[in-house]
Design goal:
Length: about 110
């Protein structure tokens, strides 16, 4: 799969990049904020966007999901804040929610 990976924590970003790369996925770009996520999706046209819910100042993961929504793009929102409200809002934005720390669940979400 062709991926863009976004997280505002550099260590998490590197872990995801390495883990998913070892799984055979093509990491097209990484970003650490919402604006970078939108730019990376526009420039690289990934099949999957993995984006953190809380990105700091600017766009959050849900706002990114809404802006990049298009046919053929799966958005995986990874977060420590898995609540019914977050899941509902993410689903409405076209995203799949995966709890941070579960690489197995993240891999499954990427594969579809």
């Amino acid at each position: 799969m062709r991926l863009v990976v976004v997280d505002n924590d550099e260590a998490v970003l590197e872990l995801l990049r390495l883990d998913l790369g070892l799984e055979g996925h093509d990491i097209l770009a990484t970003a650490m904020d919402g604006d970078g996520a939108v730019r990376a999706c526009d420039e690289h046209e990934p099949e999957v966007l993995i984006v953190d819910f809380r990105l700091g100042p600017g766009l959050n993961g849900l706002e990114v999901a809404r802006q990049v929504r298009r046919p053929g793009l799966r958005v995986v929102l990874h977060t420590n804040y898995v609540t019914p409200d977050v899941v509902k809002t993410a689903t409405e934005a076209g995203a799949i929610v995966v709890e941070k720390g579960s690489l197995h669940a993240l891999r499954r979400a990427v594969e579809g």
